[in-house]
Input
Amino acid sequence: MLKMIHRKIALVLIVFSFLYLLMSYQLPEYPYAIIDADFVPKILGFLLLFLSVLLFLSKQKETEEERKKRNIPKADIVTLLVVCAFMLVYIFLFEMIGFFIMTALFIFICSWYLGYKRHVVNGIVSLSFSLFIYLLFNYMLQINLPAGILPF
Amino acid sequence: MGSIEGLMSGFQVALSLQGILFVFIGVFVGTFIGMMPGLGPISAIAIMIPITYSMDPAIALMMMAGVYYGAVFGGSSSSILLNAPGVAGTVATAFDGYPMAQQGKAGKALAIAAIASFIGGTVSVVLLMLFSPLLSSIAVSFGPVEYFALMLLGLTAIASLSDGSTLKAFISATLGIIVVTIGIDGQTGTARFTFENAYLLEGIDFLIIALGLFALAEVCTLIFNRNEAADKEKNEKIGSLKLTKEDVKEIKGPITRQSFLGFIIGVLPGAGATIASFIAYITEKKIAKKPEEFGKGSVKGLAAPEAANNAATSGAFVPLLSLGIPGSGTTAVMLGAFLVLGIQPGPLLVQDNPEVFWGIIASMYIGNVFLLILNLPLIPYISKVLTIPRPMLISLVITFSMVGVYALSFSTFDLYLLLIFGIVGFLMRIFSFPAAPFILAFILGGMMEQALRQTLTISDGSLSIFVERPIGLTLMIVAVLVMTVPLFKKKSWNPAKKKTDAA
Output
């Protein structure tokens, strides 16, 4: 029964709509409103539930094109996860170390990891791009990006 | 203020040194980003929003309009040169544009595309100028009932018309509204679905959604294909840009027809550049004397979708400017750009901020001229962007998205959210859930909820109010029809399928 991918997705969505409805019913009441804050969420919850059930029951077969889109080689998934990890580290250290250093490092390491071989060019681009954005935001647009451990 | 005076004052803003400079920057950056495979107008506008934070609204929006049609044009160039459409709206351009490039006529193809875009864009700006104030004057009398019905119509239309499964598109739209219910409710002050997290009280900013679902999700696809392209050096020989007299004669008809048709399709909710360009291609093929030439490098087959997609691009501004309701994913992001700058588009825009309204229209004329000037001689150089190594491009797009989001709120919490929505966007992409209904629903969701609750508060909770107002009722009926008909019809309208027939 669950071999078809759309059924699996539909189940996830059904569970999600139940959770959402559950939370909608727990929203505190506001005594003076004719239409309270939980009105629309409840409609949405039931709507999503209804649509997900339709999706579960739908007999439409997956096209070849869709199947191809879904099948991703393991190596690519690993690459994606590694890039995600880079991003997490970047976000985590962003305010501590500062925009300039972190961004330059991120661009250099990420491009290198994804297979860019010309290290000198990579270094120049990552440094100059980060510096350009930093100056653009801090001095021209007056939006202060975190300086971090650098004095400027 | 009359249209002529308004336009004159608009030109004053647009033709100031600053105005010209920023329209130019907008068109240039838009073309640049639109050319990159996969990055379309939505990503281009979203990436540029942070730049506008401290700018004068009129100038900023003129720049954004430039980004928008620049991106549409950039997509055409990569369609022609590499058969790699940057955006769905330019897929049809590749049908005849790429064969022309293969025959060594890339220069001519680009010239035709630029001219067709220019005419399509200009014709439709004129129409936009005539129609928008008219629609605004009708829309002033609209109350929450009509607005709710209109937005519902826009949402159901985009869900029904997006490619792939209609059901999935509706689920995508519903999820979009669900995400917007996070945060403090504007009417009662109740904190909804915030999980006691102070960062969520104000809700999730649309830029996070736009960059996550579009730019970052696209990055994932770029990561998979990072070793393709780039090495394929095909665009060495662009060839002459000149058109012959026969060419001009051939493309005159299609360009004129499709400029008008494209505009009308662009105005309709849910339709847009993609549908306009496919319809243009198909109708021109049907009425052509030699339909067999289509797909083998016909100048008509190239000119028609190009005129149509640019005409539709400006057409999409009609509902945005005059009603304040975006009809497509791209104009939804445009609306976000408006709101960031504190401008509320809608029937009152012409009265309250005439310099913005007419400035945008004037900037579109200028932008179209720039597109022509910029693209004809510079294309060989701009197309170098296609040779930027993919790994580098990926890193740059990621950092730019993150900087944009950080500059919005100065909190790293939003950056984590961005990553989450990037993953959501990626999952939606691999499981064939269209993202455009999600972003439109997200933008419209808050307004829809407000309109619905206002309506029901006026009527004291009675649903009969929806039946009592004739305009509202008509719109509701159309919306319900648009929603139900495709759900119960087996075959949904699918541009991808048409593509195989047409190609």
Q: What stands out?
A: Chain B has one domain: 3-382+391-502. Residues 106-139 of chain B form the longest helix (34 residues).
